[in-house]
Amino acid sequence: MKNYLITGLDIGSSAVRLVVGQINPSTGELCLIAGSEVPTMGISKGMVVSIEDVVSSITSSLEQAERIVGQPINHAYVGVSGTHISTMESRGVIAVSRADNEVTESDVARVIEAAQAVATPPNYEILHVIPKFFTVDSQKGIKDPVGMTGIRLEVETKIVQGLSSQIKNLTRAVYRTGIEIDDLVLAILANAEACLTPRQKELGVALVNIGSATTSLAVFEEGDLLATYILPIGSAHITNDIAIGLRVSLELAEEIKLTYGQAMAKDVNKREEINLSEFDLKETGMANASYVAEIIEARMQEIFNLVDKKLMEIERSGLLPAGIVLTGGGAKMLGLIELAKKEFRLPASLGALHGVKTVIEKINDLNYTTAAGLLLWGYQFESQKKHPGGFIKNFNLSSFHDILDKAKNWFKSLIP
């Protein structure tokens, strides 16, 4: 069984979530067999602020999962996020190498490598190089040029890059737990693997992941990634607002949000009261449920407005037929779908996990979509290694391996 395990590790601002999947050697199917979740320490807005605390959180999650699986976990696909992530467009151009002018996979590799030769900002490293489309001579819009005939091969790519120091901090924290990193993957892209269908990506869709400290956005159209953004605002801001508005502790505000949270204030009876003593015997007051809903709605409107501004920047506001797909722990609030439809003027729905089988009920929770997406990302890469041919689709999966190979020995030399 050991050779067929894949692990996804999602290190969020509020929790570390680790899922383990097993590939059936006879059918090749992926089944999710274990999952663990522990509170995160040492992460703020997706960025490492204390390596020691992050190591402790990952270790706790790892121990829980290993008890379920019954064997050590040594490798993982790790999600990376944070406000330091940025994207840019790039183009690569080469001459086709073969004498008969047939485009080969090596030509595709060379043209994508040429697209990486772009001036990145200081102290930034490339995470993914994602091909959008190829051009063979003057024929544009080609998805897979292998086997075609031409003299000149071009590619339009989307480059995802992150701050070198943050990538190294996260990588070092993971290595110190004894885990080898199979690949670093942008968390919102992994989330898209778990929650979006090829048809949604083809029609045009925006995936909005509402995390604790950040909200991530990925926009797809015609099967291509148009843009990704990470905003420094999340569901924890709602908790802070409730704590200030009701003059209660953050712990109590979080309980109120989870139990009575409603994103549409008009759907709440204005006379309904919340007895604070049911959460904390030391509290004796009452809180108006409609007032709490107004606080939540105001903050969610702000988050959605910020997302819509990003859609305006790429001229897709109100123009995505497959609409908005919401995921993440902050998306579980009552009335949020209705509010999203109103604010975005588009269809809206909650993300649903697909592409992986599981008998563990909690894994179907929206909190686990990123970790499950990392698992699917790894499954695709492993399948591509065993059955070559999906080169274009999976190229971005391996684009970071060169950086990791160079960094591994250096990181290990720093570990006592």
UniProtKB/TrEMBL annotation:
InterPro entries: ATPase_NBD, Cell_div_FtsA, FtsA/MreB, SHS2_FtsA. Pfam families: FtsA (PF14450), SHS2_FTSA (PF02491). SMART domains: FtsA. GO terms for biological process: FtsZ-dependent cytokinesis. Its main location: membrane. It is found in: Cell membrane. Self-interacts. Interacts with FtsZ. Belongs to the FtsA/MreB family. Cell division protein that is involved in the assembly of the Z ring. May serve as a membrane anchor for the Z ring. This is Cell division protein FtsA.
